Amino acid sequence: MKKLIALCSLCGILLSVAQAQQKITPAKAGITYGKTVNKENAISVKTLENSFKKDATFNGKIEGEVVEVCKKKGCFITLKRDGDQEPIMVRFTDYAYFVPADIIGKTVVVEGKAKVKETSVEWQKHYAEDKGKSAAEIAKITKPKKDISVVADGVLVVN
To answer: Does the keyword Signal apply (predicted)?
Structure first.
């Protein structure tokens, strides 16, 4: 009987911890996800793009508008670029944190490492699925793509 009570208690604790991890604070100005980030010395997405004419990587803070978020669990965001260019993919270090779906349209500062990277067809399809793209749209992905990729230690919602 004691073992049954202990087992039920353990299951209850594990269930409450799992549910607590799924609760993500809504995106409001001043909220940080992951590492604590401030806005100081953040560069714009355009400045980041121009920096790659000189260097292969950038370590620091980037400010931009969120245009997409992973629909499955908030495991990545994309930042708006000028014109018809694909948005910049921002993944989170070791999937250590997630962001809410209501972060779309918000201005954020991400801190981490950016580089020009080739994304395989397999990963492009994975990201397309997570964005909720149709099977027809996913089937059109047939070539690797070179683009800017960011791995962020933290995200600050600016407004």
So the answer is: yes
Whether residue 19 is contained in a domain is answered as: no
Residue type, 61: K
Alpha helices in the chain (DSSP H): 2-22, 45-51, 121-130, 135-139
Neighbours of 144 (CB within 10 A): 12
In a domain, 74, yes or no: yes
**Domain containing 122 — which CATH number?**
2.40.50
Task: Tell me the pTM.
Answer: 0.75
What tens digit of pLDDT does each residue of 19-61 get? Answer: 434 578 899 999 999 999 999 999 999 999 888 877 689 999 9
CA–CA distance, 148 with 118 (Å, rounded to integer): 9
CA distance 29 to 9: 38
Cα→Cα distances 107→16, 27, 68, Å: 32, 10, 12
pLDDT digits (tens, 9 = 90+) for 100-148: 999 999 999 999 999 988 889 998 898 888 888 899 999 999 999 888 9
Q: In this structure, how many other beta carbons lie within 10 angstroms of the beta carbon of residue 117?
A: 15
Range of the domain at 86: 26-157
